[in-house]
């Protein structure tokens, strides 16, 4: 749970820093460029540790991690952060624990108890209600992109957490990054050539956001996150994500000056209580 919480704390700043990056940079370049940058770090880590090649049986789970966490979630959230505040996006990303638990139950051999599902649904209802309250009772167009991003990230989290039991957390994210790199590198190179003047004119604030999501959101945080799920189970450790929206809101307030209202603190307290209850519920591991 502690390893998962460290990973979530790093992930929680992804949306604020992404919003900083896409203020000056194209969302496609931000999403794909951060993956290529992280892939370079992954290659160095694997070479330094002389890591063995993954078995063939790991290729499909690694592809799920690449498609969900390295391509899908970054791209869709980068697009959404152009039109909605990070605080709004944060509450929708709060749906991740339930989506991850569902994927784990279907594909990961985990069997959450009825009490676990009740806590997961209750926590998700809290963050979904907060999202609707903040947007006046209706979903914005960018909300669809965020919801799709949640589903893809849940797939990558669940598959990566299970695979980390066999390969180890660092190997999972590193090999997934390298698997995606041959596809992404030509696209990023074309974006660099096509939009060179605009990219060169981006300010230091945008590049600081890009650096964070490349090194922490896309690389280092996964070391803690996948290791935590490998030890404690995908469904249970995934519940820690319920506090992520409110950590993101705090980050958005500090980094972007977005408003942090008292209702946010009340919802945060309610969600933390649900996380504590869900942690104690039985989750059978296959």
UniProtKB/TrEMBL annotation:
Places the protein is found: Membrane
Transmembrane segments: 31-48, 60-80, 86-106, 113-132, 144-160, 172-193, 205-225, 237-256, 262-278
Protein name per the record: DMT family transporter
Record-level GO cellular component terms: membrane
Domain EamA span(s) in chain numbering: 2-125, 142-273
Protein family per UniProt: Belongs to the EamA transporter family.
Keyword NAD: no
Topology within the bilayer: Multi-pass membrane protein
Coiled coil: none
UniProt keyword annotations, A-Z: Membrane, Transmembrane, Transmembrane helix
A Pfam family it matches: EamA
């Amino acid at each position: 749970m502690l390893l998962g919480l460290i990973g979530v704390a790093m992930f929680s700043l992804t949306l604020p820093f992404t919003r900083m990056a896409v203020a000056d940079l194209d969302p496609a370049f931000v999403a794909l460029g951060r993956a290529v940058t992280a892939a370079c770090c992954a290659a160095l880590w694997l070479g330094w540790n002389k890591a063995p090649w993954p078995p063939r049986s790991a290729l499909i789970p690694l592809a799920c991690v690449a498609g969900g966490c390295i391509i899908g979630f970054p791209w869709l959230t980068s697009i959404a952060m152009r039109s909605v505040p990070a605080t709004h996006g944060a509450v929708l990303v709060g749906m991740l624990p339930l989506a991850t638990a569902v994927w784990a139950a279907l594909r990961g051999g985990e069997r959450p108890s009825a009490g676990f599902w009740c806590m997961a649904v209750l926590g998700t209802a809290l963050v979904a209600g907060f999202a609707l309250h903040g947007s006046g009772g209706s979903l914005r167009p960018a909300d669809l992109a965020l919801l799709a991003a949640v589903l893809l990230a849940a797939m990558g989290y669940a598959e990566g957490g299970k695979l980390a039991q066999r390969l180890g957390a660092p190997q999972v994210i590193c090999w997934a990054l390298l698997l995606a790199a041959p596809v992404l590198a030509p696209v990023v190179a074309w974006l660099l050539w096509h939009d060179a003047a605009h990219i060169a004119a981006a300010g230091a604030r945008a590049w600081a956001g890009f650096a964070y999501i490349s090194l922490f959101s896309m690389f280092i945080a996964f070391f803690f996150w996948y290791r935590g799920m490998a030890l404690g189970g995908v469904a249970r450790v995934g519940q820690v994500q319920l506090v992520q929206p409110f950590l993101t809101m705090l980050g958005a307030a500090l980094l972007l000056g977005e408003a942090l209202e008292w209702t946010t603190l009340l919802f945060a307290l309610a969600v933390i209580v649900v996380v504590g209850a869900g942690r104690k519920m039985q989750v059978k591991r296959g």
